[in-house]
């Protein structure tokens, strides 16, 4: 039943893998038809081959590799997610893996080996040329998720005194050694410190005699090698960078980061945020049951504790509920509305913190707004819910109680939704990871306490 | 109290606006010091000026514009969010706005005018050269959020018979007319259909006599002008494109999309997903109270209805609760655990649908996994919670009831968390927008029904 519509959706968008491909691969594997397999894979981009390997199950993946392992090159390995990649590398002969990585740029090799165990890592490093190996080892010396890990060593630099003709002659005579993709020539001083850069478009459009220093791009930013990759991605997105030179602590040029890698980081950061907001540390569709259970368990455990806390609030009002069971019927509504309003505020806050749109200059204005929005929505829903409670249970005072509790909880939700993530960010924690638990605890506890407490005072 | 730590965080990352800047601007505005203002803004990237204008309140923004309106150029306008931009354009004289947009690439002009009212749009369009105006009007004829709207008209194309020398001569003699940024020369056939492209790096490294057709990039993709921008962003990220030619229905070259625009779309799509999962249609930190209330209200209203539905389930067990108030104390725990487990599953599903990692080839495997993960976590938490209930209320059977209800609800949560978003995607709805409401309704209803129903049967 589900197959049909998904297939349609694929036909619409065009970039998802076609269903036919999976059946064709299955047939080729069953027939042991290497030629057919070659034909099937040859039309695919490495990223698509990687997606295919990720989407099939482990057993079928091994069958495919047995028949088509020689088609898995470095580009395919780069595109695989960590877990599947480890499995594929473990399955392929060491020599094949070494051969596969030899043509990769240094940043891709780093990305590939950084998660491997030491023996596997060594096997790959040993297969590289000395120069490449040194480059990769130097990159691995930078902290994980730093610009130093993200950058590639392959770049084109030119001294300050060169003119356009010098640069063009250099490019023509070093054809073989140029990076696969490059968009700028980085101009450096004698101490190898970048002083500006020239786009290839500008270079091509200029006369040979023009000095490079005269056609520098206006906007020029260097990235410190120690900078976190999330910051790098932010800078690329904010300043529309295409590539940027990376410098070490002495401000010497050590590499270059290109926008496709920054885009990839941006995508991963978003994935992290979205999953963390839902209480999951990481996730791959190819994960097994054990891995998935482990990744879901911790947040559910935290939630159990917060839910028990809320239950303890309820239990202090057992006598009240025993006298008026309608309270038990209505109390989840107050808590649920608060939880949702709080989640709205905190999601906006987490996102604004990530995009640096929530700063000292506007924090108090945003807090004020969240509280007032909670008040306005609280009053509206208080009236609606008060009326419903009146009609349902025929008690005007019950309507008043749920209305007041609703206003209180929605105001607190707005406040908690902004203050908690900001405080977590201040404390150095990731607001996306922990805010949800805190905010819903607050709205549950406040919701039950306000509603049942008011009921105990007013109704009984 | 909050100022301090946020300021520290800024010093760490370096890309957020400095607190000092805001006070300096405030002082310059108070003193009416145009020269100081020029100095402050001249060191800022247009994107940072835009952020500054977004982060101050409406009144202060007008004061800044009064003093520094002449510093707001087209690049700054492009970077502003829609609401603030509308305010700024409304405040600046028409002539200033027209002057500001004149230097923009066509895609930026389109982005800028597409959300304006017709008279304001006309005022800007009339200020453009005829050729530019026609380009913008043609782009506006494509559907919103299509590749046609995203692309720029400015590009460099070459006929198939050219060699490297022809291309370089063309670039040198058309210096003034070249796009600000370009990375490829697109080679077209006599009917203007793109047949391949050449990177500038390749062009620079090749001898003048080499035909362009011999140095084509291996991977070459054209984007249909009608394609949705979300698909375009996916293609750039998946295939590491830097720029891609856009073609009309007759496959003729009509424009080019560059990766910085695609990265921007990817960022916006993520923002949309993350906010929609929390039940908000859109959000800007600069939004006022009325706008924010309106954007939060609909989802809270949906949530009210689903919460009432859950309450109706509870009310059918009023008699049961009246006999055993402990049920009222414990029932939110079952619902809350189900809601959280369901949210975990649905977030993974929504994300996997967005990255095309959830397809016909693995849907049943993923469904099976979610159900089994729900079962495993359900059993673990059943044992924990059963024991707690036993200790708390001294009733072994109450422990059994909450344990069984927990297992049932977590299995259903896993199932609903994957099936609902997939079904919504199939129905053409955005799974990020509506899944949350459906899934928590299911887990609330199932949670309360399983727990109270079992209690009614077993305990009473």
The CATH architecture of the largest domain in chain A is: Orthogonal Bundle
Beginning-to-end CA distance, first to last residue of chain A: 54 Å
**Quick one: how many beta strands of chain A?**
6
Instruction: Tell me the structural class of chain A.
Output: mainly alpha
Number of structurally distinct domains of chain A:
3
The CATH topology of the largest domain in chain A is Tetracycline Repressor, domain 2
Order of helices and strands of chain A: HHHHHHHHHHHHEHEEHEHEEHHHHHHH
Strand content of chain A: 5-15%
Instruction: Enumerate the strands of the largest sheet of chain A in spatial order, edge to edge or round the barrel.
Output: 1-2-3
**Oligomeric organization of the protein chains:** homodimer
Looking at CATH, the homologous superfamily of the largest domain in chain A is: SLC41 divalent cation transporters, integral membrane domain
Overall pLDDT of chain A, averaged?
Answer: 90
Give the low-confidence spans of chain A: 1-12
What share of the residues of chain A lie within helices? 55-70%
Briefly, what CATH class of the largest domain in chain A?
Answer: Mainly Alpha
Number of helices of chain A: 22
Q: Largest interface, by Cβ-Cβ below 8 angstroms: which chains and how many residues each?
A: A-B, 145 and 146 residues
Largest sheet of chain A: 3 strands, mixed
Radius of gyration of chain A: 29 Å
| Inertia-based shape of chain A | globular
Pfam families (chains A, B): CBS (PF00571), MgtE (PF01769), MgtE_N (PF03448)
Main location (chains A, B): membrane
Membrane topology (chains A, B): Multi-pass membrane protein
Organism (chains A, B): Actibacterium mucosum KCTC 23349
């Amino acid at each position: 039943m589900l197959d049909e519509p998904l297939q349609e959706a694929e036909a619409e968008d065009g970039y998802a893998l076609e269903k036919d491909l999976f059946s064709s691969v299955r047939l080729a594997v069953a027939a042991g038809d290497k030629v057919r397999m070659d034909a099937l894979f040859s039309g695919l981009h490495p990223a698509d081959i990687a997606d295919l390997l990720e989407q099939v199950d482990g057993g079928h993946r091994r069958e495919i590799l047995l028949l088509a392992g020689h088609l898995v090159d470095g580009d395919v390995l780069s595109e695989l997610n960590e877990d599947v990649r480890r499995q594929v590398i473990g399955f392929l002969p060491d020599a094949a893996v070494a051969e596969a990585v030899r043509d990769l740029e240094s940043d891709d090799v780093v990305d590939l080996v950084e998660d491997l165990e030491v023996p596997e890592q060594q096997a790959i490093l040993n297969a590289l040329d000395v120069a490449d190996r040194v480059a990769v080892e130097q990159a691995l010396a930078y902290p994980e998720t730093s610009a130093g890990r993200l950058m590639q060593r392959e770049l084109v630099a030119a001294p300050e005194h060169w003119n356009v003709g010098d640069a063009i002659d250099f490019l023509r005579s070093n054809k073989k050694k140029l990076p696969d993709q490059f968009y700028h020539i980085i101009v450096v001083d004698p101490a190898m410190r970048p002083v500006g850069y020239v786009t290839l478009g500008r270079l091509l459009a200029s006369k040979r005699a023009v000095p490079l220093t005269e056609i520098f791009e206006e906007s020029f930013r260097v990235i410190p090698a120690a900078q976190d990759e999330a910051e790098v991605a932010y800078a690329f997105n904010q300043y529309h960078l295409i590539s940027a030179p990376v410098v070490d602590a002495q401000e010497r040029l050590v590499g270059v980061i290109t926008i496709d890698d920054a885009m990839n980081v941006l995508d991963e950061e978003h994935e992290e945020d979205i999953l963390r907001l839902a209480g999951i540390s990481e996730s791959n569709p190819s994960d097994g049951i054990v891995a998935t259970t482990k990744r879901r368990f911790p947040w559910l455990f935290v939630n159990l504790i917060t839910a028990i806390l809320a239950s303890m609030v309820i239990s202090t009002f057992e006598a009240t509920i025993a006298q008026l069971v309608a309270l038990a019927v209505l109390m989840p509504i107050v808590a649920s509305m608060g939880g949702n309003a709080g989640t709205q505020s905190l999601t906006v806050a987490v996102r604004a913190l990530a995009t640096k749109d929530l700063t000292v200059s506007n924090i108090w204005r945003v807090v004020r707004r969240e509280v007032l929005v909670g008040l306005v929505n609280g009053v509206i829903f208080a009236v609606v819910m008060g009326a419903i409670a009146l009609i349902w249970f025929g008690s005007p005072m019950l309507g008043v109680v749920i209305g007041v509790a609703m206003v209180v909880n929605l105001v607190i939700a707005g406040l908690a939704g902004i203050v908690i993530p900001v405080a977590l960010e201040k404390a150095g924690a990731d607001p996306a990871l922990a805010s949800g638990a805190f905010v819903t605890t607050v709205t549950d506890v406040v919701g039950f306490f306000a509603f049942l407490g008011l009921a105990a005072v007013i109704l009984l």
